[in-house]
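Quick log. Single chain, no ligands specified.
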Amino acid sequence: MNEFLQAALDEARKGYEEGGVPIGSVLVHKGKIIGRGHNKRVQQGSVVLHGEMDALENAGRQPAAVYRECELYTTLSPCPMCSGTILLYGIPKVVIGENKTFMGEEALLRERGVAVSVADSEECYKLMQQFIQEKPALWNEDIGV
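-> predicted structure:
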């Protein structure tokens, strides 16, 4: 696992330890993490703070040119909201830890020119499966079921 996906997984574990949904993400610009975050819907009572959204928020306001040079690493396939944000800001590359637990809008991202790769990380998958087994109702809420 590369260092950036590992950083996203570390964020996911923080979320799990806080009682939240264990999905983490980091935004990388020119080889440096400029934003990191994890799903905080439970912890902050937020409707929008998925891991990707939290990482973007924590990166702060950036010029459009910066986003166009970024890579986003996330432990789970991005949902429609997070995928829309990736497209809105023109982030050209997304690396996904796993997509067996949840298949987000990868096809849309690819159709719109985003380079999407899936690491198929067993660690990311196991963390999500453990969480879902422990808190199925919370998982269903997070994905809108």
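The chain has a mean pLDDT of 96.
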